[in-house]
Write a structure and sequence with these properties.
With 377 residues, the chain is of the alpha/beta class. 57% of the residues lie in helices and 7% in strands. The chain has 16 helices and five strands. It has a five-stranded mixed sheet with strand order 1-2-3-4-5. A hairpin with a 5-residue loop joins strand 1 and strand 2. The longest helix is centred in the C-terminal third of the chain and has 55 residues.
């Protein structure tokens, strides 16, 4: 059994929401938005407030580095045809894959965040690779990430009356050791890690690794090298006596029985097949699918929070709304300026043509010899 000292990293339960909504960070988001806008790099669909904040946090609020990361993200979406995968990709082997690689979203934690669970110790990699390919599984993973961003987080935000943009993850690694980290396993892990860290940054709230044996500790030393410091700070590696830690974050009714909770989801074929959560509530889904867009859904939840918030928090939220109004006005002004610049460029081009024509005429009538004055008679 692993003792208390076997935990590799402990989570520091800070006030992440307060940090994210601090005035300085909000000002940085506005500055980042303006930077992208003025350079013509702010897209209509993926340039929302929360996405920009995630990329800023990813690069420690360095504007230029955040801009580079965001532009790489947008290029990847085009090159990889992410929108097409999200809309059209069909993962017919879904049921068979889940049998050999048990994983899935299941309800929410005490803060309203979605819970994602993997039972890595029960993974049969050979059977998994017979059921699908790494490429197809990666496409399925991207489709699930897009669903989380566009449906699960907004639904959790509405259900909990507060903004939700990150996930609580549980990895059950019972029986997992170095022998499980084969070449195909490494390829899959590295590809998924690259996608999540580069293109869906700052979506992990905390990660519980449970049932970690001494064999897993050796593997963990290798896995840690692929994770950045911000991610590592959210990880807690636990032995078999993990339940107390999980119950501090998750209600027993929302925790599957195989992790020590009370839930079985027997009517769904098991918890990891259920995808149970607020995102399946018809009323919530209807709100999200309204023409008001996802960004407005976030604004609605922020308004609900503000009703019962203390005065200083209301003032902070009010400043955010003012910032958004300023952004809308700025966007309109920039568009008008761009139109005026285009008209000036056309006018300048025409002026250049006229001047070039005049230069040619002057050159043609200029005498070859200098004019001499006539002597007076």
């Amino acid at each position: 059994m692993m003792q208390e000292t076997d935990r590799d990293i402990h989570i520091s339960d800070g006030t992440m929401n307060k940090e994210e909504q601090s005035p300085n960070n909000e000002e940085m988001v506005e500055a980042f938005r303006n930077l992208l806008l003025l350079h013509g790099h702010l897209p209509d669909k993926h340039g929302d407030h929360n996405t920009l904040r995630r990329f800023l946090k990813m690069r420690d609020f360095d504007l230029e580095k955040s801009k580079e990361a965001f532009l790489n993200y947008m290029k990847w979406r085009v090159d990889y045809k992410v929108d097409l995968i999200s809309q059209k990709f069909k993962f017919e082997e879904y049921g068979e894959v889940k049998k050999h690689y048990p994983h899935g979203f299941h309800k929410v934690d005490k803060t309203g965040r979605p819970i994602y669970i993997e039972r890595l110790g029960m993974t049969d990699l050979n059977a998994f690779l017979k059921a699908t390919t790494i490429e197809r599984y990666v496409n399925y993973h991207i489709k699930e990430q897009e669903k989380t961003m566009s449906l699960r987080y907004p639904a959790c935000s509405i259900a909990s009356d507060k903004h939700v943009s990150s996930t609580t993850t549980i990895l059950d690694v019972s029986g997992v050791g170095m022998s499980n980290f084969s070449k195909p396993a490494r390829s899959l892990f590295m590809e998924i890690q690259k996608i999540d860290s580069n293109y869906y940054p700052e979506t992990l709230h905390r990660l519980f690794v449970v049932n970690a044996s001494s064999g897993f500790r050796m593997l963990w030393l290798a896995l840690k090298t692929f994770l950045d410091a911000r991610t590592l700070a959210k990880v807690q590696v636990l032995g078999p006596n993990y339940l107390g830690e999980l119950l501090e974050a998750i209600e027993p009714s929302n925790l599957p029985t195989f992790l020590g909770g009370n839930c079985t989801c027997s009517d769904h074929g098991g918890c990891l097949f259920s995808d149970e959560g607020p995102w399946n509530d018809p009323g919530i889904k209807e709100k999200i699918e309204e023409p008001s867009t996802i960004e407005d859904a976030h604004s609605e939840t922020m308004d609900k929070v503000s009703e019962n918030a203390p005065a200083n928090q209301k003032e902070s939220l009010g400043e955010v709304m003012i910032t958004m109004e300023k952004y809308a006005a700025l966007k309109t002004a920039v568009k008008d300026s761009q139109k005026r610049i285009e008209m000036l460029e056309i006018s300048l081009h025409e002026t250049k043509k006229v001047l070039n024509g005049l230069a040619e005429i002057i050159e043609a009538i200029q005498p070859n010899q200098p004019i001499t004055k006539c002597k007076p008679v």
